[in-house]
Design goal:
six-stranded mixed β-sheet; Rossmann fold; 18% strand; Tryptophan synthase beta chain; pyridoxal phosphate; Trp_synth_b_CS; EC 4.2.1.20; tryptophan biosynthesis; alpha/beta; four-stranded parallel β-sheet
Amino acid sequence: MQNYAIDEKGYYGEFGGAYIPEILHKCVTDLKESYLRIMESEHFRQDYAQLLRDYVGRPSPLYHSKQLSGRYGCKIYLKREDLNHTGAHKINNTIGQILIAREMGKTRIIAETGAGQHGVATATVCALMQMPCTVYMGKTDVGRQQVNVKKMEMLGATVVPVTSGNMTLKDATNEAIRDWCTHPGDTHYIIGSTIGPHPYPDMVARLQSVISREIKEQLAREEGRDYPDYLFACVGGGSNAAGTIYHYLNDERVRIVLTEAGGRGVNSGESAATIHLGSTGILHGCRTLLMQTEDGQITEPYSISAGLDYPGVGPIHAHLASTGRAQVLAINDDEALQAAFDLTRNEGIIPALESAHALAALEKVTFSSGDIVVLTLSGRGEKDLETYFKY
């Protein structure tokens, strides 16, 4: 059986590694040498578990959707990450990383954000721990996610609009890395997804793995078995997906379905379907699949969803796709919008546009009547209301 875990050099198969400027070498090496020791320590485990329980509100519910189950002829559960404090899965990671940063003696936090959910989650934990926080956000995303920008500022963060490139997530990440290079000693960069140089993809996946750990416990209680037949999750960088599948990677009974943003169509020239369109390259510190030209210039991605609007993908997901462990579906804007409106009208749950891409994929899979399906609702849709109202 193939092993899908990360190796000691930070690679998932051919994807991963740490490709960084010399000035960041000590930062990344210190983190690599510290993160597992800290995460496995008793005081971290206690602090992290207590904050997840009493501050975030975990465990998040595993909700049996009778409407979706009836429609697709199987048993469909929704893992309700939308009910976490701050409205998404992102807080699982930011709480863990700020505890690690504090243990390492860091006194300043920076982050990048696309949809703003990671930015809000970072600003939230910085307020909690009373650390200064700077969040880089593409000017395009600042415009379409105004509520999250105001939340971050209310929480005390400095939000820096980025005007280079397409002014979206890729460009925000570039600026955050520039900041890190300028302040390597006192600053910890809380990366929001399973991207970046090793150990970030592994660290973020481990912190998000609380999702799949809870799924196992909840299914065992509800179904008398701790695994589903299918797991569904959306992928931009891929943190909610990594958390959803983490404890099932080597369980071949579980089929993994990942959904990426097809935009206006995979072949339209306006898409963020990196796994469908990408080739191997290096971006933001790791070797992964990228949307790029033949001479290696990054192609600007497009998605109606700010959180999926990224030209790369986490190396773990590039590996799962290349080995065939995961089935990857591209969902276009219209399909995601329709799925979002359907869930809202039929279940009274307004999902984030990112999560709507996972919901839309249910249409594209044929289920058997006895199948148990778990789909992660990575966030709630308040941040996307302007987009929903427009349509």
